[in-house]
Structures are given as C-alpha cells and as structure tokens.
Design brief:
Layout lengths: L4 H15 L2 H6 L26 E6 L9 E6 L4 E4 L1 H6 L31 E3 H6 L1 H13 L2 E5 L7 H6 L14 E3 L15 E4 L11 E9 L6 E5 H11 L1 H9 L2 E6 L4 E6 L2 E3 L5 E4 L13 H18 L6 E3 L6 E5 L3 E5 L8 E8 L1 H13 L4 H8 L13 H14 L4 H9 L2 H4 L2 H5 L7 H9 L5 H20 L9 H9 L6 H8 L4 H13 L14 H7 L3
Parallel strand pairs: 4-5
Antiparallel strand pairs: 1-2, 2-3, 5-15, 6-17, 7-16, 8-15, 8-17, 9-14, 9-16, 10-11, 12-13
Helix pairs in contact: 5-10, 7-8, 7-9, 8-9, 12-13, 12-20, 13-17, 13-20, 16-17, 17-19, 17-20
Length: 551
Amino acid sequence: MTDQPGAAAASHLSARVAALPPAWLRDNCPCPECRDPRSGQKLFQITDLPHGLAVGEVVEPAAGGEAPVEVRWVPDGHRSSFPVTWLDAHRPADSALTGDRRTETGKELWTAADLTGRVPEARWDDYLAGPVRRARVLDAVQRLGFALLRGVPRQEGQVLAVAETFGHVRETNYGRLFDVRVEPDPNNLAFTSARITPHTDNPYRDPVPTLQLLHCLENSATGGDSGLVDGFAAAAALRAEDPASFAVLTRTPVPFVFRDDRTELRADRPLIDVDPLGRIREVRFNNRSIGTLRLPAAALEEFYAAYRGFGELLLRPGLQLDFRLAPGDCLIFDNTRLLHTRTAFAQDGCRHLQGAYADLDGLASSLAVLRRADDLDALTGLFHGPGAAEYLGEEVTMAEHMLQAGALAEAAGAPAHLVAAALLHDVGHLSGHAAEEAGDGDHRHGQAGADLLSRWFGPEVTEPVRLHVAAKRYLCTAEPGYRAGLSAASEHTLRLQGGPMTEAEAAAFAAMPQAAGAVAVRRWDEQAKEPGAAMPGFDHFLPLLTRLLRG
C-alpha cells in the first residue's frame, strides 16, 4: 500500500477546521469585506452573521504549498481564507493561558534568592542604542515586575524622559514628577527620613498608577536603602497556606484615603484583586492610607486577622530583594504587583530621588511593537550563519546538533516549550557571546542563550536553556553512570564548567521549578551528536515557535 503523507496531512487539516467553533472562526475572517485592510478593524457586527452558520466546505492547499485554507460558509456562501500559520498560532486554548498579561499567569513570581545573579538591569546608553536591549528591559518589567537602568543622566526631570521612551507620564496631584527627599512640611511620610515599610503607591486612586519610576540624583546619606517584594508571590503563598484569609482579602473592599489642603481622594478596593478566573491581578497594600472600615463586627474580626497574616507574610525573611540606589540609577516597577520599601536614613548627607508615574498599557504597547519588528528571522539567520558550522570538536555542526535535539524532543512527545528549549539550547554559542566568554573557562552559553531568547519566549523556554549546563553537572552527581556516556568534548567542557555538583548543590538544583525540564533538555543534548542523522530543517519548527511567542 502506498503511503500518502500529503493527503493524510490535508485530511487532518480539514478535520481541525471543521472542529473549530463556527461563530469564532467566522468572526476572525480576515477578508476585506469583513475587515478594513488599513486598520484591521471589523466591518460587521456579531448580529450581522446569519443564524445557523456552519462550515460548508474546506478547500486545502496542495501538499507542501503555502496557500491559505479556504472555508466556504453556509447558508450565505461567504468565503474566508486563513493562513495555516494563523490557525496554528490561534487554536483555541485553555482559558488559564489567556488574558491581558496583567495577572499572575505568564508572570515569573520570585523571592530574593530567585534573582541571585540575574537582577534585570541595563546601561542607559545600551537601552537607547537599539530595540533588542530595550525590549529585554520592558519584558523584565512585564515578567518580573521591575528593571533597573544604570547610568541615567543625573539631570532634573530626566525621569520623565525615561518614562517617555515607552509610554506616557501619568500626572497626579503630585505633578508630572515629584521629589522624594526630606521636605520641611511634608504631606506624605515618603517626604521624610523615616523608615517606609513595604507598600504600593496611590491605593486611594481608581485606576491606580500602574507603573512607578524612581531616578536617583544623589544618595550620600547613611541608610536609605531600597527593597522590593513580589506581592503576587506573597499573595500566592497566602492562597496556598491560608485560603480562607486569601478569600477574605479578595472580597473585602478597603477604603483607601488621602487628604491634604488641596486634595481628597478615596478608592474602595480589596487588598488582593483577582480576575473572573480567580487569578491574582492586583495588590494594594499601604497601611498609611487605609481609612476606617465600616463592616459588621464579625466581618471586621475576620478582615483584621487576614490583614495581619498577609502583612506578616510580606515581611517574611527571604521575600524582599534589598539594594541601594546609586546616583544615575532609575528603577521602573509595576505598582500593582511589587511593594517597595526604604530603610530610615540619617540627615548626614543628601538623599534625593525624582519620581514619576506611568501605565502598564503603554509599556505593553511599546514592547509589542518592538517585538513585531523583531520576528524570528534573527533566529533563522543564526541557524544558517557561519556560527552554525562548528560544534566544539564534535562530529556534527552546531546547527545539526540543535536540530537533532529538537527532533528528539518532538519524537519523544515533549510539550512544545521543551521542544523549543531542546532546539534552541545552544543558541548562546551562535549569538556571539561564546567568543566573548571563551577565556573565562566556563562558557556561560546557557545564560547568554536565555538572555537572547527572552526577546521572544517566556521562562518555560528560557529557563531550561539557562540551566542545561548545570543539568549536566547535576546528572553526573545524581546518576553516577551518566558521566561515562559523555562524549570527549562534553567531558572536556564539564571540567571547564566546574565538574560534578556536590550533593548539596545537586539537592538545591533538583528543587528548582524548571530542573526537570533542564534535565530533559540535557539528555536530548547528549544524544544529538549523530553524524549523518536525518533531521528536519529549522523551518519545520517555525509554526511551533510562533505559537510560543510572547503576545
């Protein structure tokens, strides 16, 4: 019997289209009758679609062709053409994976230890020099909740210029910018030298400013160190440890109030806000601004017990990232997620920051535009460039090695993010970083690759890439027979990378959230060194990579 893979693939495509909800598919018709070609906006209302809408016929592209899939509709005979890549990228998904990127889904929650050696920062000149570094900084704010720019000019008002690189300044009663320093007649404790405990700003506004910037002009006083706490991580811990208290804090409106001689503001919002699916979306926590709750006595008892528990959790050792802002540093952070804090300081020197507010939607828009201009062509180029020709003494090229690893992961039925991680695990060698690092005896190509890939992918892809070198050291300790199977080149790099882990290091590695994925990638890495092995080209993986792109 003759195999007909093209016909089988086509039949599968027809079945996929037929299984899609008709109203959803028709609502996404890209034809010029349905969408304005210039703006992409729809030209019809949902009520304009006929009753009894159904797919009448699916006309598929020829095997191996690039033509779109044509859908012919009944009862009105309308025709829609959908690129196969669009169908791959927009297949219906679990609702837990969708949203506006404001919830905990898609964020990387952290404690201070999680950021050891990888606090997101960049030099101001590098940030301005090109879209790649700028996108990495904005991505860090969206994913981790903050980023630190170094070497920002120490000029009055420069914080506004920083905000305008990605959005618009949010003006408040404090002005377009505000000075954080000791004032003779302060209307806020921030303008004193007192200790400020972990809090979010402006909880008495609705909507609250979602981004805050703090630019250090001078910091010569004793004390005045800064700190950040991931409020989403703390709220998630409360949900896991005390779900009843978590529920109380999500359903109890809290009156946040600010008054001075020119302003009176109030917003009644919960300390922890969740979206309709129950995902953490916002934290408001500011003891200085909470007004008097008027609730039944039992509800007050319940709230204050939960409030205290959350407050204690926020002060738990290890949660807070401590640092000191130096002159020229500018901190950008998510004011709906991160709580910031400051130690008291002596007035034996000057501590002067300038601050401004902006909004996450502007940052998200700028990041999306940067990514739109930075598609996967750059990765394709790495696989076909001169860096793909040699692989550290192995009998396959670097490109062949990675393509084999991706094919092995795919054949094993691995989830898409691990197929991508296996395919891209050594991309740090191709990006130019390997040459820079060749003299340090370590070859930190895992970190270099993860940094590069963060332009496109989330931690589910980048973390196994970052950790795959450590996974080799771990396996040599956890599985004594593993080392005997290493190639000569891999044994050589093992020695350069520090050799097998100690038992304590191996235990710490195994406890990391992405350790299992990194170990899986490592195993495919070691297997993917067969000269002449059949493997797909890089283009084979593009639909999978496209589906994983950050939106």
